[in-house]
Amino acid sequence: MNISEKKAFKDRRRTPSGSRELRVVIFLGLLCLAVFTPENLRGIVHETLAEAYIAVSTFVAFTLFLFYSIEHFLKLDTNYLLEKYERFQVPIAALMGALPGCGGAIIVITQYVTGRLGFGAVVAVLTSTMGDAAFLLLAQEPVTVLKIYAICLTVGTLSGYFVTFIHGKDFLKHKVDTKPHFLHTFEPDPHLWLLHTPWLLFMIPGLALGIGNALQIDTNEWFGTLAEYDPTTWIGMLGALLCVGIWTTAKNAGPSLTNLSGKLTETHGFKIHLERVMIDTNFVTVWVIVAFLAYELAMHFSGFDLAGFFAVWAPLTPLIAVLIGFVPGCGPQIVVTTLYLTGIVPFSAQIGNAISNDGDALFPAIALAPRAAVLATAYTAVPALITAYGYYFLFEL
């Protein structure tokens, strides 16, 4: 990879969810909806922002913090793991892909482009990875995510071995000695340090409110005489706007791409640990808000029954979810997971999307090995369709 290619990939890594201008437009659009719309519509926007933040963002942040803490204290070095147990590379690659986030899959891709892993491992990891949508599902339905992990891990391993059996272990073997360390470089954003405190001032009480809501408690009563002003909604709405605002201005706009990188956890302290949680949580928050608002505003203006639409077109729903999985990045996949969590799409669609989507791992794959990336992505469609429709016909028809 030459200097210009590295720079181009680095730019994509920093803004996988779009340019700075687009992020500003999204933030200003949400701000206008929350402030300047008619009262009845403004109430819908406030409640939607609050629900996205309290019911989703706070739990995602908590899950990320636990996951990154485990990574930090155990000092996981998955590069070493792949090199030491190379003959088991397919199941290890599938396992790394099944882990929450995109970092494990990205490490497998970088090991492939250095010539240490075969094409079967690439297919295994892209088949098993669910990307950052896994954090959303883990925070909301931990039992369900275990089922998804088991399915993705099994399908990914079988797919990797099948491709190796068909093409041989040297098929599309990469010979370029590319140093992968730049993919794991996390660049601290100085201005984010100033925002840690206000972000936590909303996130910590927001998590308490989220737990209260999950237990069917009227959390407004916790505020005594202020309950009539609906403080829960205000805290949730302002917390959501803060997340989107930080996402808009931050240098690292998308997922940090440093999950499971032992080198990072050995050289950085709590400051970077918290910053990674902030960045990934804000990214997930934006896409959850987009999904929630798109649904609520569509219902408000048109009366269109999205759930009814997918119920009528149920046989096509898994196919649609699989096709969405081909879109690079985690944002569209978070939308599919959000639709599943709100009961709009069935579990078969969630399975199909989880298997077909490659998360942010597709960005380095396209940049470093485009032919292998395209072919491996195409291969993931087959097990995704078979598994999704198998579940649909067996359990949902």
Structure description:
Helices cover about 75% and strands about 0% of the residues. It is mainly alpha-helical and about 400 residues long. The chain has one domain (about 5-285). It is globular and about 70 Å long. The protein starts with a helix and ends with a helix.
Which structural class fits the helix and strand makeup? mainly alpha
| Overall geometry | globular
Identify low-pLDDT runs: 1-18, 177-185, 255-267
What fraction, in percent, of the residue positions are helical?
Answer: over 70%
Cα separation of the termini: 49 Å
Total number of strands = 0
Largest sheet: none
SSE arrangement:
Blueprint: H1 3-14, H2 20-35, H3 39-74, H4 78-84, H5 89-98, H6 103-113, H7 119-128, H8 133-140, H9 142-167, H10 190-214, H11 231-249, H12 262-267, H13 270-302, H14 306-312, H15 317-325, H16 331-341, H17 347-356, H18 362-368, H19 370-396
Helix pairs in contact: 2-3, 2-11, 3-8, 3-10, 3-11, 3-13, 5-6, 5-7, 5-9, 6-7, 6-18, 7-9, 7-19, 8-9, 8-16, 10-11, 10-13, 11-13, 13-16, 15-17, 15-19, 16-17, 17-19, 18-19
